[in-house]
Structures are given as C-alpha cells and as structure tokens.
Design brief:
alpha+beta, Helix Hairpins, Cupredoxin, transmembrane, translocase, magnesium, copper ion binding
C-alpha cells in the first residue's frame, strides 16, 4: 500500500503490473541517459567556443543524429506494444465480479454465485483501528489468488473509475456502459485503491479494498457469506 514520501510504484501483485514497472524502469533508463548526454553537450558548448568556419555541411553527422532518435523510439515502442498486447490479451476467467459505482460507495456482485452481493462504504475515521485513513472499507472484495479474474464495472449515476495500483488496472465506470478488466493476483494480501475520476464532493471517500486469499479460503468465505 502507499506510504508517506513514496516516490516509486507500489509492490506489484499481478503480472500486468510487473510488466508496467519493467517498462517504466526501462524507459526511465533511456531518458536518464539522454538527459545526461544533452547536459554534457550543453556544458561543453558553453565552456569551449570551438567553431569551424569552413564547415558548410556534414552529411554523416546529419544521418547519425537523424537515425539515433529513430532507433531510440523503436527501442521504446517495441516493448511498449508488447506490454499493451499483454494487458489487453483476453482469457477465460475463473471468476467474474461486477462493480457498480455510486455517489459515493461501491456495490459488488459475484456473477458466479447468485445472491452474493454487497455494498462497500468507507470506514469512518472515528472507527479506524489502523492508520489506513480514507482507504479502509466496511466490506472488502475477496478474490482467489493465482486465478483469472474478470471485473465488469459501470456507474449508477455519474462517471467513476475503479483503480487498484498494485494490480496495474484502471477502468472508468460509465453509466449505461460496461467496461471490463482482466487481472490475476499472484500473492495473498490486502490491496487498496480509490475512485480515480472526480465524481462529486465525496469523491475522495470511495475506497476500494481487495483481499486476495487462497482458493480454499475463498470458497470458505463464499459459504460463510451465504
């Protein structure tokens, strides 16, 4: 979960977030190298006034500084397209959950288990037993680990957005429209998200709490809930 003064991504809990983190680190390495080279070049030019008044054209240099940006863009584009393909790659889900955004709470329905549905409200600050202010919810969404999860989201009134950073997923909950997310969680734990689309005065009070548990514990939770 996020902490104070955190400048990096949260620890990834899904393969899609791992791919996004790797692509981010790869791109940042290239950007850092370009920034350092440009800074060194500007420093050299400002300190030394080396000119050649007989130089009219240099085709080799022009070819090099035209080809290098093209190669760099290709170097970034190829893994970007691969990551995009992996994120959009459909699969046969083991579990389908429907998330409906309201002002200002979430409703969840488990399509594979008739009658299994509930509302999830933010836990008031006065009732908190931990320090997860604005993130705790009275009902958490239980999902099995190492399973393919499909989440369908929509809005009941205005546009919301269902987002869990540790999973690397985000989808707008638009009234009258169904959007779909596919993800898989690799490890058990409690993960938090929030509505990421301004939806009114209490937009900041729509937390998302996910509890990833082994399949056996998930089936026990379903039996207990019913």
């Amino acid at each position: 979960m996020p902490t104070w003064h955190m400048i990096s991504f949260q620890d990834s809990a899904s393969p899609s977030m791992e791919q996004l983190t790797m692509f981010h680190d790869f791109t940042m390495a290239i950007l850092t190298l370009i920034t350092v080279l440009v800074a060194l070049n500007l420093t050299f030019i400002s300190l030394y006034s080396l000119t050649d008044r007989f130089l009219l054209q240099e085709q080799t240099t022009e070819i090099i500084w035209t080809a290098c940006p093209v190669l760099i863009l290709l170097l970034i584009a190829l893994p970007s397209l691969q990551t995009l393909y992996l994120l959009d790659d459909p699969f046969s889900p083991n579990l389908t959950i429907k998330a409906v955004g309201h002002q200002w709470y979430w409703s969840y329905e488990y399509s594979d288990f008739p009658g299994l549905e509930f509302d999830s409200y933010m836990t008031p600050t006065s009732d908190l037993l931990s320090k997860s202010r604005l993130l705790e919810a009275d009902n958490s969404v239980a999902i099995p680990t190492l399973s393919q999860i499909r989440l369908i989201t929509t809005g009941a009134d205005v546009i919301h957005s269902w987002t869990v950073p540790a999973f690397g997923v985000k989808a707008d909950a638009v009234p009258g429209r169904l959007n779909q997310l596919m993800f898989s969680v690799k490890r058990p734990g409690i993960f938090y998200g929030q509505c990421s689309e301004i939806c009114g005065s209490n937009h900041s009070f729509m937390p998302i709490k996910i509890e990833a548990i082994p399949m056996k514990n998930f089936l026990d939770w379903v039996i207990y809930f019913n």
